[in-house]
Structure formats: C-alpha cells, structure tokens
Amino acid sequence: MSLRENLNVVFVGHVDHGKSTLIGRLLYDTKALPDGAIEKVKKISEEEGKKFEYAFLLDAFEEEQRQGITIDITMIQFFTKRRDYVIIDAPGHKEFLKNMISGAASAEAAILVVDAKEGIQEQSKRHGYILSLLGIKKVYVAVNKMDLVDYSEERYNEIVTQFNEFLGNLNIHPESYIPISAFLGENVAKKSEKMSWYKGKSILDTMDGIEKDKGIEKKPLRFPIQDIYKFDNRRIIAGRIESGSLKKGDEVVFYPSLKTTKVKSVEFWQDKDKTDEVSAKMSVGITVEDEFYNKRGEIICHKDSGITVSNSFNANVFWMGKEPFLKGKKYKLKIATQEIEIEIEKIKKVIDAATLQEITGADHINKNDVAEIVIKSQQPICFDAFGDNEALGRFVIIDEFNTSGGGIILGSAEVSKKERETKRLVTKEDRKNKFKELGKLIAINGDNKETNISFAIKLEKKLFDLGQKVYYLDSKEYEKIADILRENGITVIVANREKLSEAVEIIVDEAGKISDNILNII
Ligand code: GDP
C-alpha cells in the first residue's frame, strides 16, 4: 500500500460568508459523512423548525469523531481520489486562527471565502493580512452565494477587482478565484451549469490541483530536542525533525551551546522500522557519541547550517490576548521546543489589519492588532528567518498561561551590514578628498579572450613599472573589489567585460602587443 498524500487547508473569511457551509458541502459531496448523517440532521432541523444548514453537519461530524476519539477534533478530514485533506481551524471553533498562528497546525493552502453580495468585509481583510503574515502563498478565493446575485459575472468581476487590489498590497496574489454557491453546491464538487461564463475549475478540482511544497527534507537540518530518555544507560535524544535529514555517523552541533558530536545510532521500536537515515517530519530518537548534558529546547543542526543564535530579532506579530502586549513586561516565547523569557525591545509600527493604517510610536499592541516589533531576551535564542525555514521562523507568545500572540521572524535585529557601513569612520567622501580622483577602470576586450587576459597582465606590469598604482582583477574577484580599489586611487584593469560604464575600453587584436601610445591615452 502506498502512503497517501495529505494536504492541510485552512478556510478563512468574514463571519457568515459561508465557510462552514462550504466545508459541510465538501464533506457531503465527498461522502465523508457517516451514512444517513444528512437525513438525520435534516430531520432534526425540521423538528426544531429550523432551516437546514450544512454547518449543522460539521457538528454532527465532530460528534462522531469525538466518540471515536481517533482524530483530533479541531481537525476535519475528507478525501478525494488524489489525497486526504485536513481542514484546519474550521470556523465554529473558538480558537479560530490560534492554531494557525501558533503553528500547532500549519496550513499549506488557504481558501478565503467571500460573500458575493456583501463583498469584502473587515474580517476578509484581516484574514488576508494574517495569511500574508504566515507566509501562506497558495491562496484561493471562493466568491460564495453567487445564487444571491443571480450568478452575475459582472458582480463576480467586481469582487475579483476589489480583492486583487487589497491582497496585492499585502503581496498576496491568489492562484485563482472560484464563483460558487456553497449551499447549492454550484462549482463545489462539480462545475456549475449556471455559470457557464466561468471557465475555471470547481473548488474540489482546484484543491486537487494544488501542488504540495516539496523539498523540506533538502533544507538544512533542524532537529529540536523534545526530550531525553534514559534506557539501559543510554541517553536517547527524542524529537521531531523539522527540516533536513540526519543519518548515523553525521557530525552534529547542538545550538546554542555549540557542542559538537557524532550520531551514534538512529533508534527504532520495531525491526521493520530500522533505518540509519531519518528526515523532515519524522519523530525520531537518536544517540550520540559524546554523552554531554543536553536538554529540551536545544536545536541539533549540521555544521555551518546557517541557524542564527542571537538575543534579539525583528518580527511581525499578531496579538490575540485579552490584555494588550506591553513594552517592558516579560512574556514567554516558544520557538519549536525552546521556551525563553522575552520582552518587546521596540514597537516599530502597529498596523490596523483591516485598513492597513500604520501607527508609529505605540507602546502597546491591542487585541487583533498586527505589529512590526523587535523582541529581545537575556538568553540566546536559536532561530531562522521565516522565509528560510518556517519551523524555526515562527513563534508563540505566552502571557501568564495563555497563548496570546504569535508571529514570524523577519531576521536578526543585530545591526545589519548596511547599517554598519554607515557607521564606518572613513567615508567615501574622505577617500575622495584624499585621493582626489577615482582610480581608472580599464576594460580589455577583443575577440580572443586569452589574448585579452595576457594583454591585461602585461599592461598591469607596464603601468606598475611606470610607478602607477594598478591592479588586474580577474573576473571572479571583480564585483567585490573593483570599487574598493578605485576608491583608494588604484587603477583597475579587467579583461573580457564589455559595456562597463566608466571604463576606458581597449579592444585588443590577435597580436595583443602593448604599444606605448596606449599608455599615453591612459
Ligand atoms: P460562516 O460564519 O462563514 O461559517 O458562515 P455559514 O456557513 O454559517 O453561513 C452563514 C449563512 O449563509 C448560513 O445561513 C448559510 O446557509 C448561508 N449560506 C452559505 N452559503 C450560501 C450560499 O451559497 N447561498 C446562500 N443563499 N446562502 C448561503
């Protein structure tokens, strides 16, 4: 039996725009519901004098799953021929978005549901913003309740334009828009005949067409330690590999302690699971050669794996705590298995997610606000920028015992290279004053590359003998060094680089001799 692929999808959108209905309808159309469920729910609705809602099916479905206790009830699953789907954070759950923010469940794609009649509303925008914050790139917009606007192509186009404008500002470019009626099942599991003007796919076909991101096992290793177990005098380091892969004999570094050792064994419970190599998304246990003290929260990486260890970082946060997120107060930060006391060092700006209005100079962040901040800690924190590695690039903030916020790491807050440059004591200007003019740039070009190079080398010698400051840069070094040399008044010679602005170009013929008259020109 081959392993079935599974895809995590999140449904977001303004309240009452039809998320639950769409999910209920998907469960119904893919026959994920237990036999007779829909009849049962219809009957109950009738008896209670209520209009039937697909959303009721979700409750029935959950009830069923809860009894089975096999599946985490915050997730709803259904499957198609292609694969299994896990719907994360289905609406109706109180903790809407919390799971997503905290990364307890990470969505690979999002379906943003918008009511065709009402159009874009506050939460449509807020959720759009959060998707961008979470770096979810695969966004699909379901334009729902098309039945209420007579399946009008014109109205659909209006919504598409509205959304494109707002989401474009957030750098989200939806993969597609799908006009649907969740309630009537139009364009949900099969193409609607009522909207023949729409040439795209149904919701289900769209979902089946989503390609999963590949290659997480090819990224650098990130193995956060969850626990250490002792078994007959061996210390087994256990955790889930977040990215990359690991095998017996690998040299590994424990961050932030920087202790280095080798992997002695990859543990297994049953003989059939025996393997010497493990990779991303697997929960594993390993032993290492040097049994020094290690603990939960440390991150195991390979050498030079690029992880950052720092006391501060720049981040985008989303706050959902009852109490505001305050400057000067201590909070607990969780990244992978690390738990560290932190505080806000600086609030760069607070953004009203619905209007995208920016407020600077704030000293706290209110519930539902998004902000760009700098976080600092006494203890070193190991992390990646979210764009490089999601698992070590997202965090949660705990206020007392509540998950009150979360966000993504943009990068280290230590002075960037560019900022350092401006703090240099010798400026471009100083050099100019001292050396009066830039060194010349001489480009040696001609049909024969070899001849150009040997000409350049001879020219360097000639000018050098004439007492000039000169340097021949071969092409690999050029980008880095030419400006520096010239700023210091040194003539730079390069070969085989055409169309360089500022260069005195010398076209060399096959003979490639240096004539003294060239020296005069230079
Ligand atoms: P949610 O808050 O986004 O989960 O919204 P619901 O799924 O609970 O839907 C809100 C209301 O809109 C319910 O009364 C639904 O029956 C209704 N609704 C949902 N989809 C459609 C649709 O395609 N057409 C019509 N006419 N009503 C719909």
The CATH architecture of the largest domain can be given as 3-Layer(aba) Sandwich
Give the total of domains: 4
CATH topology descriptor of the largest domain:
Rossmann fold
Bound ions, cofactors and other small molecules, one mention each = guanosine-5'-diphosphate
Give the overall silhouette. globular
Report the CATH C-level class of the largest domain: Alpha Beta
Uncertain regions: pLDDT < 50 for 5+ in a row? 68-73
Pfam families: GTP-eEF1A_C, GTP_EFTU, GTP_EFTU_D2
GO molecular function: ATP binding; GTP binding; GTPase activity; sulfate adenylyltransferase (ATP) activity
InterPro entries: CysN_GTP-bd, CysN_NoDQ_III, EFTu-like_2, G_TR_CS, GTP-eEF1A_C, P-loop_NTPase, Small_GTP-bd, SO4_adenylTrfase_lsu
EC number: 2.7.7.4
What this model shows, in words?
- The protein is α+β, with helices and mostly antiparallel strands.
- It has 4 domains: 6-208, Rossmann fold; 216-302, Beta Barrel (Elongation Factor Tu (Ef-tu), domain 3), CATH 2.40.30; 308-416, Elongation Factor Tu (Ef-tu), domain 3; 426-521, Rossmann fold (3-Layer(aba) Sandwich), CATH 3.40.50.
- 24% of the residues lie in helices and 33% in strands.
- It has helices at 19-29, 37-47, 54-68, 98-102, 122-133, 153-169, 203-208, 417-422, 428-435, 449-465, 475-487, 516-521; strands spanning 6-13, 75-79, 84-88, 109-115, 139-144, 176-179, 223-231, 234-240, 245-247, 251-255, 259-266, 277-279, 283-288, 299-302, 308-319, 325-326, 331-335, 338-352, 357-359, 364-365, 370-383, 394-399, 402-412, 441-446, 470-472, 491-495, 503-508.
- The strands form 6 sheets. Strands 2-3-1-4-5-6 form a 6-stranded mixed beta sheet, sandwiched between helices. Strands 7-8-13-11-10-14 form a 6-stranded antiparallel barrel.
- Helix 1 packs across helix 3.
- It starts with 5 loop residues before the first strand and ends with a helix.
- Bound molecules: guanosine-5'-diphosphate (GDP).
- Guanosine-5'-diphosphate is lined by residues 13, 15-21, 53, 55, 91, 144-145, 147-148, 181-183.
